[in-house]
Amino acid sequence: MGEKQALGEASLNEDQTKADLENHVKLDAADVAQCADDQCRLDGQGAPRPTRLYKRRWMIVLLFSSYSLCNSYQWIQYGIISNIFMKFYNVDAFTIDWMSMIYMLTYIPFIFPVTWLLDKKGLRIIALVATALNCAGTWIKVASARPDLFGVTFLGQFSCSCAQVFILGMPSRIASVWFGSEEVSTACSIGVFGNQLGIAIGFLVPPILVPNVDDMDELAHHISVMFYITAGVATLLFILVVFVFQERPELPPTQAQATARSIPSEQYSYTASILRLLRNRPFILLIITYGLNVGCFYAVGTLLNRMIIEHYPGEEVNAGRIGLTIVIAGMVGSLICGIWLDKTKTYKQTTLAVYFMSLVGMIIYASTLSLGHLWVVFITAGALGFFMTGYLPLGFEFAVELTYPESEGTSSGLLNCSAQVFGIIFTICQGKIIDSFGTLAGNIFLCVFLLIGTIMTGLIRSDLRRQNANRLAKAEAERQMSRQDYGATVLIPAEPQNPPSQA
């Protein structure tokens, strides 16, 4: 029923879509119906271009998920034991905060050149650069395990933050290039899953590897061990990408992807693509709503320790565990949402429902934080993480549907850029509100923007262009095959009713 509903919804936009697709040579973002017709042109044998799913696709997405994990782990690597690094490097708390904030700030200026490089050079080059930068950053950190080398460790973290720009927006691109239409959302959620798992490991591993000891030599040894383990994993992943990661399958997985391949590279303009996306009203609404939701999540994660400690003094360890609960619940939410989308194709309905539940979760979390029962906070924070983080693959996949056949990396990059901007704004503003008026006022501040985002999500027109392209291609293929069958029957000579008598 879900698939029929999605196809029916797509058909409502078919007439408008066909009208928009006359300028395919200029790569108009709405060129779906014409693309489908191009894909179904006969090659002389009366068959559309072939598609195929390769088993290698699972290796590709798991490898991407693994090096995304390694990179996101390092985002929280310093912050979760900030007091230890403050003592080791003799710096203040705000300086250590920059070890996490650099990830967010680096993304904003570099995302546009990176998405341009993705469109020009493809997935393999992006994967190689990402893992090379990440690997280089880990080895720079290995050389920084001395109290007088904070600048060196910051340089290593900066290198890793640059690698993140080549990673964060890739799940939807890998899913589209390698996976079929019935599994593309699940593949995207697996890609997002790696990033979330890395953050979860970042909450757990550093406190275990680096105990809070007073002897500086012993502390340097523990920090060095942590850095060496990370560098070893990053190096192994870089080697695997060099020998295993493939640009794309020989045959496309879907007719929609075959259409995207058929566009000559000389007819593609990255600047024109950006301008077309910025004229796409449903996508602009999604950019804003995605930024509001994920920005709220960034603010909650960054300020979680302060909020917990204010109501539960001395519970630093449990504050980290609550953060871990948020991330793990979000990983489950991401996978469930991805599988649900593949089964139902109800992109707008699911996105709106999850967004609304994020608002509900935020309200419940805010209202129960000060009750004095830590186990209640674990439950409400887990529910909040389930929906807020589960929204991530929904936003990526909905964006691809709204912007097809534009580059998935470009649309994902714009979404993530919005999230970073709102994340910085919300973190600073909520922090000031908490300092002046308390945690309840700060959380109400986020609830207001989640309510605005929910309303705006309801206004997004559900123009599922990628689904429409696949549907039209299948329909055209069936029509051509039926013509073949009919032609074959009329070519068979009829047996004469009165055969001549034998002599």
In short:
The chain has 503 residues and is mostly helical. The protein has 20 helices and no strands.
Record keyword descriptors for this entry.
20 helices; disordered N terminus; 503 residues
Describe the structure.
This protein has 20 helices and no strands. It has helices spanning 2-12, 14-20, 33-39, 56-75, 82-89, 93-121, 123-142, 150-165, 171-178, 184-209, 216-244, 255-261, 270-278, 281-311, 316-344, 347-368, 374-403, 408-437, 439-458, 465-490. α5 (82-89) packs across α6, α9 packs across α10 (184-209) and α14 (281-311) packs parallel to α18. The chain is globular.
Q: Uncertain segments of ≥5 residues (pLDDT<50)?
A: 1-47
Q: Let me know the average pLDDT.
A: 80
- Helix and strand composition category: mainly alpha
Radius of gyration, in angstroms, nearest whole number: 26 Å
Write down the overall geometry. globular
Distance between the termini: 66 Å
Largest sheet data: none
Strand content: under 5%
E-strand count: 0
Counted by DSSP, the helix tally is 20
**Helix fraction by DSSP (H/I, runs of at least 4):** over 70%
